[in-house]
């Protein structure tokens, strides 16, 4: 409704004018409310549209990834790529629509409310004020006494001035009302018309886009009918082939299996250079003499083997001209033969006598061929396929379970913020700092190396092998977390962050200021530090209240028995008889523990518990963590409680604030952050501290190091980690108990296995001299299995709880 106010009427200031003014004011107030509501609804619509666009972009990215994965199928790749491009165009059209809505509805109407309605309100205030002044002047004039001429003149003058001012103000107010009533129509209609034209453009663009896409969609529809027919035909062909092969397999099963061997023929002129290949069992040269099935091949006058197709071949014999081959009938296994060189020998086993004869003949022919071609050096194995020439004595088979190359790269770059270099923003980084948990470009990685390993440990994401606990550490932190700590005050100080392509000296100066001088780290106040420590201690209590970390029950007294007494039909042996120093004795004891093969295959059946020795008292239970008000709050205390609470970002923050990684809490039995990480039960937390130079052998007031605590709590993964990092398993606490003693008392077969294997491997290295290898193959395999289970399937290691003598 259009409301106008007559200028002549306003000068009379009649009741009709006052009623009109009141109606106008109510209408403007309601208009302002409706416009505010419409603007808020528009903002909500725009926000929802942006969220829809973000989700739609992720969906389109998923289509692109599916297209990239289908590169072998040109039809699927090209179609999905085209669909993704079209949908991306629709997302762009949506973005334009929401931008237009923001300009036409939100911005334009907000401007109308803030400018025009604000002017009306200001004019109303002036009108109300002058109306009150006029009313007061009229009353004063009426009350002036007739016999007091000076009061009469004064009242008359005031009334005259007030009426003059009122007429001026009321005319301005009426003008503002009429302008507002006129402008509201144009502003609202202009805003809505612009919004509707934006919708018209959006739907026209979408229609044009899909009109262009329609021929392709019709073509694909026709191809789909043919694809269904072809798929049915291929299915019939595969079923016929399956039936034929199954019939052959049944016939072969009725015959002697030795007649069904793979036909192996020696072909010295093979196109790929492989004269012969197939599976053989190989006996390792370690103390256990284990047999492993490997894929052997004779190529380029060399004998090599692989465990997996992608593994680099391990060279057994460099030059077959220096070797001889012979049958082996003096061992228990059948179909064995031996290839002997001047420096070593390799024992192998075929699946049948026919295969053994075929391999012996192939090796002999290769030796003869090598002598005939001795004038020609021949080509060695391609360096790309044989980068490591392992010897038999070292058991140099490549370990396939540690992540390497693209697998590690993809997992680390999947963390938000890791797709660009942490320090200069260079996209697609290929290096990492493992103690900081960040990704780096090649230039920044070189600068980090120059800082020294006490500041940054650099490793390649594509060339190096990544252990699972180290990979999890990288995924727990990331560039975003670390930059929030080390660049907290960068903008406040006005420091410029380097960009890709900046001179090296500028990047180097920035990195040194960031990590060495820690110039951009925000130092917490005493109150902030106190709140942080208290919060972490409370967080630790919540974690310790879970079923995984119940405090151990104090053990009841154990009756002492004579070494020869019998408990439940089993002889109780002394602990001294269970700990032997010889390798043979250690291998004998391993018979009572789970084998690494059963563990690696995922077998979670519990092995029989070991008998409780009578001569050793049970280990004292670990103390329950209780937070005491310290004398002083420090970054070291923050690191201490953050380690127990398993909060890697808070640990990294504490180290950035200058916390000593081996800080000792004198109020808590001289415990260190690493010991608290053991209490928290996190393998990744321990790895983070060790990468930042934590002492794996530092003891508390009870003489117990991290290995003691991990053993007492039954944390098998941590025990494995500490042994790999050089923990001293011979260290004894104040009760003269070593970790092995505690593990035997607790009947924890997994930890006993690890400790005895480590002890035996150490003894073997000492016996073989200073130039011996770092460990035999079986030892490495078992530790590799435990490492994988601790990181990827920890439930398999939760078979044993903390010490409880009443456990069956």
Brief summary:
Helix content is about 55%, strand content about 5%. By secondary structure, it is of the alpha+beta class. The chain has 4 domains: about 5-130 and about 175-230, Up-down Bundle (Substrate Binding Domain Of Dnak, Chain:A, Domain 2); about 275-370, PH-domain like (Roll), CATH 2.30.29; about 405-515, Annexin V, domain 1; about 530-545 and about 570-795, Serine Threonine Protein Phosphatase 5, Tetratricopeptide repeat, CATH 1.25.40.
Characteristic key phrases:
808 residues; alpha+beta; Substrate Binding Domain Of Dnak, Chain:A, Domain 2; PH-domain like; Annexin V, domain 1; 7-stranded antiparallel β-sheet; 24 helices; 14 strands; 7% strand; disordered C terminus; coiled coil; membrane; BAR_dom
Q: Can you walk me through this structure?
A:
The protein is an alpha+beta fold and 808 residues long. The chain folds into four domains: 7-130 and 177-232, Up-down Bundle (Substrate Binding Domain Of Dnak, Chain:A, Domain 2); 274-372, PH-domain like (Roll); 403-516, Annexin V, domain 1 (Orthogonal Bundle), CATH 1.10.220.150; 528-547 and 572-797, Serine Threonine Protein Phosphatase 5, Tetratricopeptide repeat (Alpha Horseshoe). Helix content is 55%, strand content 7%. It is built from 24 helices and 14 strands. It has helices at 7-12, 15-69, 74-143, 149-254, 353-372, 406-413, 442-451, 468-476, 479-486, 490-493, 504-516, 526-544, 575-578, 583-589, 596-600, 635-645, 648-656, 673-680, 683-691, 706-713, 716-724, 739-745, 749-768, 777-792; strands spanning 274-283, 291-299, 302-306, 314-317, 324-328, 336-340, 345-349, 403-404, 431-433, 438-440, 458-460, 465-466, 566-567, 570-571. A seven-stranded antiparallel sheet has the order 4-3-2-1-7-6-5, with helices on one face. A three-stranded antiparallel sheet has the order 10-9-11. The chain has a two-stranded antiparallel ribbon with strand order 8-12. A hairpin with a 4-residue loop joins strand 6 and strand 7 (345-349). The protein is elongated.
């Amino acid at each position: 409704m259009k409301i106008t106010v007559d200028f002549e009427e306003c000068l009379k200031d009649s009741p009709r004018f006052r009623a009109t003014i009141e109606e106008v004011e109510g209408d403007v107030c309601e208009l302002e409310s409706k416009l505010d509501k419409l603007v808020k609804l528009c903002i909500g619509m725009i926000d929802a549209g942006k969220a829809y666009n973000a989700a739609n972009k992720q969906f389109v990215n998923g289509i692109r990834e599916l297209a990239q994965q289908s590169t072998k199928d040109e039809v699927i790749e090209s179609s999905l790529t085209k669909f993704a491009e079209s949908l991306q165009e629709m997302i762009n059209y949506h973005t334009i629509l929401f931008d237009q809505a923001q300009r036409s509805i939100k911005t334009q109407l907000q401007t109308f409310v803030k400018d025009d309605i604000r002017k009306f309100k200001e004019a109303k205030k002036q009108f109300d004020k002058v109306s009150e002044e006029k009313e007061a002047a009229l009353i004063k004039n009426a009350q002036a006494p007739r016999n007091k001429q000076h009061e009469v003149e004064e009242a008359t003058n005031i009334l005259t001035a007030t009426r003059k001012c009122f007429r001026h103000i009321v005319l301005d107010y009426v003008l503002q009302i009429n302008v507002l009533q006129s402008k509201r129509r144009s502003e609202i209609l202009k805003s809505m018309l612009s919004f509707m034209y934006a919708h018209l453009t959006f739907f026209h663009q979408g229609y044009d886009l899909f009109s262009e896409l329609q021929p392709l969609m019709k073509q694909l529809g026709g191809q789909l009918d043919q694809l269904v027919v072809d798929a049915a035909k291929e299915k019939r062909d595969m079923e016929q082939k399956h039936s034929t092969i199954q019939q052959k397999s049944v016939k072969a099963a009725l015959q002697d299996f030795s007649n069904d061997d793979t036909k192996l023929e020696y072909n010295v002129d093979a196109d790929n250079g492989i004269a012969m290949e197939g599976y053989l069992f190989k006996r390792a040269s370690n103390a256990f003499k284990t047999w492993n099935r490997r894929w052997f091949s004779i190529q380029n006058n060399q004998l090599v083997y692989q465990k997996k197709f992608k593994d680099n071949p391990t060279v057994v014999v460099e030059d077959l001209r220096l070797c001889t081959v012979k049958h082996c009938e003096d061992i228990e296994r059948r179909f064995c033969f031996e290839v002997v060189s001047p420096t070593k020998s390799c024992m192998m086993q075929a699946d049948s006598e026919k295969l053994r004869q075929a391999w012996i003949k192939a090796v002999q022919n290769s030796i003869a061929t090598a002598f005939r071609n001795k004038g020609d050096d021949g080509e060695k194995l391609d360096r790309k396929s044989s980068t490591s020439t392992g010897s038999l004595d070292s058991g140099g088979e490549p370990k396939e379970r540690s992540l390497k190359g693209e697998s590690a790269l993809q997992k680390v770059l999947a963390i938000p913020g890791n797709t660009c270099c942490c320090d200069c923003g260079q996209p697609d980084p290929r290096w990492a700092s493992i103690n900081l948990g960040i990704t780096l470009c090649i230039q920044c990685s070189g600068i980090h190396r120059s800082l020294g390993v006490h500041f940054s440990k650099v490793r390649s994401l594509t060339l190096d092998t990544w252990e699972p606990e180290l990979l999890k550490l990288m995924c727990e932190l990331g560039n975003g977390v670390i930059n929030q700590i080390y660049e907290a005050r960068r903008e406040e100080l006005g420091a410029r962050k380097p960009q890709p392509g900046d001179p090296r000296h500028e990047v180097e100066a920035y990195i040194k200021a960031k990590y060495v001088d820690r110039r951009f780290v925000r130092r917490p106040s005493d109150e902030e530090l106190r709140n942080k420590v208290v919060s972490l201690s409370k967080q630790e209590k919540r974690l310790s209240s879970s079923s995984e970390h119940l405090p151990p029950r104090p053990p009841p007294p154990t009756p002492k028995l004579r070494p020869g007494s019998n408990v439940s039909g089993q002889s109780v042996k002394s602990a001294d008889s269970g700990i032997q120093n010889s390798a043979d004795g250690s291998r004998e004891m391993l018979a009572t523990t789970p084998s690494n093969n059963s563990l690696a295959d995922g077998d979670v059946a519990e092995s029989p518990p070991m008998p409780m020795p009578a001569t050793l008292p049970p280990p004292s239970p670990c103390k329950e963590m209780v937070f005491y008000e310290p004398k002083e709050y420090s970054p070291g205390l923050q690191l201490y409680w953050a380690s127990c609470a398993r909060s890697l970002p808070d640990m990294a923050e504490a180290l950035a604030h200058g916390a000593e990684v081996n800080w000792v809490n004198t109020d808590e039995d001289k415990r260190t952050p690493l010991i608290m990480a053991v209490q928290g039960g996190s393998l990744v937390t321990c790895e983070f501290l060790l990468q930042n130079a934590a002492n794996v052998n530092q003891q508390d007031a009870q003489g117990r190091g991290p290995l003691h605590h991990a053993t007492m709590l039954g944390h098998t993964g941590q025990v494995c980690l500490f042994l790999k990092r050089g923990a001293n398993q011979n260290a004894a606490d104040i009760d003269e108990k070593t970790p092995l003693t505690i593990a035997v008392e607790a009947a924890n077969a997994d930890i006993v296995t690890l400790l005895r294997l480590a002890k035996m491997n150490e003894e073997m290295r000492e016996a073989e001299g200073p130039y011996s290898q770092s460990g035999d193959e079986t030892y490495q395999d078992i530790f590799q299995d435990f490492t994988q289970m601790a990181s990827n399937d920890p439930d398999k290691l939760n078979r044993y709880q903390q010490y409880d003598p009443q456990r069956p």
